[in-house]
Each structure stands twice: as structure tokens, then as C-alpha cells.
Amino acid sequence: MAVDELLGPSGITCEGEGRDIIEALAEVPDLWDVNLSNWSNDSQTSRFSEEGFQEPYIRFVKSVTTKPVVGVGRYTSPDSMARVIKQGIMDFIGAARPSIADPFLPVKIEEGRIDDIRECIGCNICTSGDNTSVPMRCTQNPTVGEEWRKGWHPERIAAAETTDAVLVIGGGPAGLEAARALAQRGLDVTMAEAGREWGGRVSRESRLPGLATWARVRDWRVGQLKTYQNAQMYLQSPLSAEDILQYGIPHIAIATGSHWRGDGVGRTHCLPLDYLQAGVTVSPDALLSDGAKAVPVDGPVVVFDDDCFYMRSVLAELLAAFGRKVTFVTPEAQVSPWSNHTLEQARVQRRLIDLDVTIITAHCLSSRTADTLELACIYSGKTRSIDCAALVPVTARLPDESLWHHLTARRDEWADAGIQSVTRIGDCLAPGLIAAANYSGHQYAREFGTTPSRDAVPFLREDIAMFRSTVLAGTM
Residue 49 — pLDDT band, cuts 50, 70, 90? Predict the structure, then answer.
């Protein structure tokens, strides 16, 4: 039996009717499955809730019934799971998202392999697949949704048939996953990262408000790589095309990432906006690297969101928390509309309102002076002017592919250098979600050394006609 608690004092609350109902029916069901209201409350993200966030609402249930109690609350840590059971708060823990991130979670806990657990980061990219009617994806587990379609096992990868070495350039999510999976296949892997830390965009974004758990994408892969003797990792190691040719490693995976555009081009503005140069423009990358101090001037900051997911709102939150006066401008009808798919939109908009961020929807950019920004209504074209000391355009990203171009320009030297293949992966190939970069790195490693047929379908597909005939024939 399941009891959904409605929100607010007018609903069924854990202090009032919710408790009364469970006490009255305490011994009737075989099991109590308790959670919070609708899906967006039941499956909150790590950005807006702590691990075990449902405990204050459901912990009384065990005290009024002898029947088993199961609940959820985004428990991702084995320690937290053990605590809930030992304290008698629940008898079973529902762990849907943690099991998506690592289907072998219970086995690894039982065997004491805690460091091998791919811990869920609570980003809800998994829910976005359901809401957009596409195959499920997971930021931590690139094999989810491909177990049958492509035969990708979450834990096992066939040993490589070749002993060729691989050089992975770039230590972001794509590079780390590619190197980890290649090492698991038994290949000698060398990783070179130009910066001072592993993780790339994952490390930078995990320092933004509410996104600390995203660092698990980096931490798990770095931890796994350190267990492989056939994986060598080097920080502060920028490489040029000349360096790569001199090394002569047979296979090169370029995972150098991407950067945010600063010219306004995105979903709404198809051509560069030259007038942005009339005032101070701050790249999202500068904020990711240096925080709010990256804005070099005093006065109001305008963040223009044409990306429509989390980045714009998190940067606005960062600036507002630093004490800056922030205006959020978007061509959309609401703040961060794509976050509806991750069940966060209402919380995102409420957070900005609570931080006194001014929100202007349904407007695009029109022109600019040193201290003002002119906006245009996307419906009527009517313009309005707002104060703007600095503009942060969050529009689109471009791949950091200069190394790729320099290397391909010298393709005729590859054979003499012993280079057999050069491949772009992750954001360097196509900027997207962290989950997409992770998937790209895993796909490169998984398919390394194979030559797929150009005529073969990329994945298995359901044969609806065969399914229907099987059902009608009664053989199923």
C-alpha cells in the first residue's frame, strides 16, 4: 500500500491526517511504501535536497506498524543506507536512481567493494529520458539503456584483441571514461591533461551552488584508473601536434572539451552580435574558473539564457549569493525550461526569486551601450532598456578542436610516426551534457579495435510485427 503525502497544510501531512491514516490502517497492508507527493517531490535532485531528504516525513511510520516499511529519499551512500536500517527508520530502501547509476550496488555493498560503487550524483538526467521519450541516459553509467540495444554490460567489457597503446588527451568526463574503459580492456593507456586537476568541466561545474555531488563523475573514474597498472596519468601536460607525432603512440583520442561562445550566437540569435563589444561581457567559462570575482566591474549584471538548462540559473545564483544585483533574461516563457525534464524547473525559478533576481522572460537582445542593454520582445519586437554593467551570455558552446585541426593538417606524417588513428570524443566532437561526454568516451573504448559494417544497424530494434505474431500464436 502506498500513501502519497500532499504538499502544504491543506494536504495530508505527516503530523496530521497522514499519521492518522497510517495508524488506523497500520496492520492492514502487507507492506507500507511511503514517499512524498508527486514525482518532482519524491525524486528531488541533489541541487535542491540532501541525501535522505524524506526522513522527516516518513520516519514515524515504523513506530505505528509492525509491517515492513520501504521508502526512498535519494540514498546513495552505503553508510547512509546502513544507518537508516540500523536506526529502524525503514526495513527496505528503494534505490531506483542509485541502481541506474550502478546496477550492482547491492552486490558491491555485500562484498565490501565500496570504492567500486558508481554513486548516483542526483542530477535526474535519467528522468529526462522518460519525459522526452528517448532512451534513458545516466551521467554516471554510460551503459544504461544499451544493455539490450548494444549488448553493453555495466561491469564487463571484452578484452581487446590488440595490444596497441592509446594516448588520451584531456582529463574531462569523456577522456576519463575512455581511459578507464580502455584500461579495463587491457590496453596500455596514457592520459595527458593540460590543467592542474582532473575532471575538466565536471570539476569546474561541481564548485557551483548545489552541484558538489557532480564531482563523483570525476572521483570514481580517477579512483578506478589508479588501480590499473596499465594506465599512466599526467597533469600539467599540454601537448602539441609535434609532441604527438614524436611520441608515436598508435591511437590518439582527443578529448579537449569545449568553451562557451561570447558573441551571443545560440538558439535565438543566429549571427554574432557585434554590439556586445560596447560593454563588459563575461564568459561563463570565466565564472566557472574564478567565480563571481570574474566580473571586473561594479553594478548590475545581466545573465542572458539561451541554453535553457541549468547553467544560466546556477551562474545567476552564484552572482546573487555574492551580493551582485542580477537580472535574468531569457527568450523562453520561464526560467530554465529544459529543467522541467529533470523535475527542477519550479525549484530553479523559486530559488532565483528568493535571491531577489529580476526575471525577464520572452525577450532577446537588441542592442547595447557601455551601461545599458536593450531587449526586444520576441512576440511584438517592442524594445525596453535595462541597466547593465556586465553581461554574461549563456548561449551555445564550441568544441576546443584546434589540436585536432593541427594534427589532421599533418596527416601525411602519421604513418611515419606510427599513428594509426586519431579520434575526437566528448565535447571536443559535439558539446552536450556531461552524460553525453561520458557516453562518447565509453563508446570509443567499447568499440576500439572493431570495424562496424557500414550497412549494419547501430543497435538492435524491436520487431513489432514479430512480437504481435508471437503473441497471437500463443508462444509467449
Answer: very high
